[in-house]
Structures are given as structure tokens and as C-alpha cells.
Specification:
Blueprint (H helix, E strand, L loop, with lengths): L7 E6 L7 H11 L3 E6 L9 H8 L17 H7 L3 E7 L1 H8 L6 H7 L5 E5 L3 H5 L1 H12 L3 E2 L3 E3 L7 E4 L3 H12 L8 E6 L3 E3 L5 E3 L5 H12 L3 E6 L11 E4 L3 H9 L7 E4 L6 E3 L18 E3 L3 H6 L6 E8 L3 H12 L3 E6 L8 E8 L2 E9 H15 L4
Parallel strand pairs: 1-2, 1-3, 3-4, 4-5, 8-11, 8-13, 11-12, 13-16, 16-17
Antiparallel strand pairs: 6-7, 9-10, 14-15, 17-18, 18-19
Helix pairs in contact: 1-2, 1-8, 3-5, 4-7, 9-13
Length: 396
């Protein structure tokens, strides 16, 4: 979906060097037939002038909470009431903190708090500011509150330091907003997703697990909700907040996950197995801490249930999507796994390039061949995956 014709967009601009990109973003929206109203912070006006945005949008630009052009000087209420969406690009660390914590001390932050329409933000900042624990807490809170987070991505910065924190390009933001405003490809569909690692106890303090943050699975859940699906997320232990609108089921072991999935699989239209499930579990976990001895410790491991394989084998079961994290021979191993599991679609990546990171690269394997999804933020790839699934469903 690349058509935003007739859509009413409020574009917010905050004070960062990436503000110059807002001019191109405005031009793209207007060229596509959108009605664009621009609101700028005082700091944004130091990077790009309101006159530029007024010329591009064809409408007055608003910067003042007490703007007398707005009835009763209620700009923080009136300016967003007829809008279909609010998009803030760039969104600085300061702005993210304000909205995440309910602070509205200027026009843009106040109208975001008083909005009745969806809000999407495109963060842009120095790599250290993006990685700061406070910023990450604020982003997770915004995501949990249903705010769409667009990027950021890795690349060069104005401070000549690279790394995560660079704002998405205007064309990428345009595509994300157009998708959010477009038809919901999975409306009325029930989607069951697994995410995160499983943990298999050896004793009360030790266990066997997998190196997974859960970020990809949670991104897929977010993308599925955006596509209109009713989403249930069966999750191993992670520090992530479930996306707004997602039913989350917490599990620990692979057998816990198996039980939770099988209880829900027959009611699902789509099953997406993203979790890093441990293949084995200790046969005899101890109810106390095993003390250090003088010799080697031997563990007997038993095979865990094949969750994806069992769901795929169900009569009249859901459309199944598998994930494969490989360390070598990606194509050969992924193709073999898809055929072994007898599933219509499998997404694969190299484990060493994704674990714990905010970006990923995926290769999709189906009956039509191989489809490369180049490296991008995980939420971007998740949306592309959901779009691919939606196109395959009518053929099922």
C-alpha cells in the first residue's frame, strides 16, 4: 500500500539535524494526495524554518501553544481532531521522554497526549542517546502504549559517529505510514506466535537455554496487530513488554510452550514459530543446587516436543510459518527444514548476525522460491513478513 490519497496527516517535527528530512517527507505525502498539517517545536525551528514547511504543505505551520489562529487557543486539542494519524519525524530523546511519561509542556507534546488518532514516531539521535537505558525504557513504554516506533537504523550521523540512532529515510517513513493507514491484511484472522527462549532447569539455579532476546517474535506480534489480526503471543522469559492489543501467555520450558500452543493451535488461522526452543531438557532436574565436585558432571538430556512439527501435522490446522537461525549453509539448511516440517513458509537468518540486535536480515523460503529481505530494523522485516503471509493465505 503506497496510496495515502485523501488521508489527513499531522506531521510533527522536533529539534534534531534530521529535521531537514521532514521537508522531503512532507513533499512525498502531499504528492501522494495527503492533507498535511505541520506542527514544529521551538527547537525544530532552529534547524528548518516554518516557511519551508508551509510552502511544501500548503498550510500554515503551527509552533505556539497559544496560537490565536486556533479557536479558543486550543491548538493542543483542535489541531489533531480531524487527523487520521500523527507522525513525528524526527522524534528526539527529549520528545520520546515527554510522551512516554505524560508530559505536555509544548504544543506538539500536548497534542500527542490529547490525541484520538494513532501516533507514530521516527526516533533520531546520537548512538549513545539511543542506547541509554532511560531512552530504551521510554521506547518500550511507548510501544506498550500502542505508539508505532519507526526505526531508527544504523548509519552515519551528523556528529560523524556511526551506529544505531539514524532516522529512517523519508521514503521508508512514507511506506510505514501508508501501510498503517492502508487496508488491514489480516483482519478477522487469529494469529498464534511464539517468541523468546525456553529455559530447561538443571537444578534450582542452573539451566539449559538459548541465546534469544525475543525481539524478532515481539516485532512479528506488533506487525500482526497492525495488520488487524487477533494475536496471542506465547513467550519465554524476556525483558520486553507485549505490544498493545496482544494477549501474552508466559511460559518457561519447551514443554510449557508446547502445552500452551497445542491448546490454542486449532483455533488459530496462522501459527508463526519464532521462539528459540531448546531441543533438549535435563531428564532429572534437581530440587536443590548441585554442589561443585572434583570430577566432571554428566547430564542426561531428553528430546523436547517438536512444537512446529506437531502444529503443522494437525488436520485442518493453521497456516504454519517457521523460523530457522542457522550458523552456516543457510539456504541448504533452511530448505531442508521447511521440507522436513512440511510447512508452506520458513524465514531464516544467520544466528550470529541477529541475536540481541535491533536489526536483522531474513530470507523467506516457500514453494515459489527464495525471497531476500535485506537488513533492516526488526519491525520493518516483521511487517514485510506479515505482508508475505497475507498474500499466501488466499492461495491456501
Amino acid at each position: 500500500m503506497t496510496d495515502v490519497s485523501g488521508k489527513r496527516i499531522l506531521l510533527g517535527i522536533t529539534g534534531g539535524i534530521a529535521a531537514y528530512k521532514a521537508a522531503e517527507l512532507t513533499r512525498l505525502f502531499v504528492k501522494a494526495g495527503a492533507d498535511v498539517r505541520v506542527v514544529m517545536t521551538e527547537a525544530a525551528c532552529r534547524f528548518i524554518t516554518p516557511a519551508t514547511l508551509q510552502a511544501l504543505s500548503g498550510q500554515p505551520v503551527h509552533t505556539d501553544m497559544w496560537d490565536t489562529r486556533v479557536p479558543d487557543s486550543m491548538g493542543h486539542i483542535e489541531l489533531s481532531r480531524d487527523r487520521d494519524i500523527i507522525v513525528v519525524a524526527p522524534a528526539t530523546t527529549d520528545f520520546l521522554a515527554k510522551v512516554a511519561n505524560g508530559l505536555g509542556d509544548d504544543l506538539l507534546s500536548a497534542l500527542c497526549l490529547a490525541r484520538r488518532c494513532p501516533l507514530m514516531v521516527a526516533p533520531a539521535m546520537n548512538v549513545e542517546m539511543w542506547q541509554n537505558a532511560a531512552t530504551q525504557r521510554n521506547v518500550e513504554r511507548l510501544r506498550a502504549d500502542g505508539v508505532g516506533i519507526l526505526g531508527p537504523t544504523e548509519g552515519d550521523h551528523a556528529d560523524r559517529e556511526g551506529g544505531m540512532g539514524r532516522m529512517l529515510e523519508p521514503g521508508e517513513i512514507f511506506a510505514e505510514v501508508a501501510a498503517a493507514l492502508g487496508p488491514k491484511a489480516l483482519t478477522k484472522k487469529k494469529v498464534l506466535i511464539t517468541a523468546g527462549p525456553t529455559y530447561e532447569p538443571i537444578d534450582t539455579v542452573r539451566g539449559v537455554t538459548n541465546q534469544s532476546s525475543g525481539k524478532m517474535g515481539y516485532a512479528v506480534a506488533q506487525a500482526a496487530v497492525e495488520a488487524g489480526a487477533e494475536v496471542t503471543l506465547v513467550s519465554g522469559a524476556t525483558v520486553l513488554a507485549a505490544p498493545a492489543g496482544v494477549e501474552r501467555v508466559d511460559v518457561i520450558t519447551a514443554r510449557d510452550m508446547h502445552k500452551a500452543v497445542m491448546a490454542r493451535a486449532k483455533q488459530a488461522d496462522v501459527f508463526i514459530s519464532v521462539a528459540a526452543v531448546a531441543d533438549y531438557h535435563p531428564v532429572d532436574p534437581k530440587p536443590h543446587k548441585i554442589k561443585r565436585g572434583n570430577g566432571n558432571l554428566k547430564l542426561e538430556l531428553a528430546l523436547n516436543p517438536d512444537i512446529l512439527g506437531e502444529v503443522a501435522a494437525l488436520a485442518k490446522g493453521p497456516f504454519c510459518v517457521g523460523f530457522a537461525a542457522e550458523t552456516e549453509d543457510l539456504n541448504a539448511n533452511a530448505q531442508a527444514k521447511r521440507k522436513k516440517k512440511r510447512i508452506p513458509l520458513l524465514a531464516a537468518n544467520l544466528a550470529q548476525e541477529t541475536f540481541g540486535k535491533d536489526t536483522n536480515a531474513l530470507t523467506l523460503f516457500d514453494e515459489d522460491g527464495v525471497h531476500e529481505l535485506p537488513r533492516a530494523p526488526k519491525i520493518v522485516l516483521a511487517r514485510q513478513l506479515i505482508e508475505h503471509i497475507a498474500k499466501m493465505l488466499p492461495q491456501r
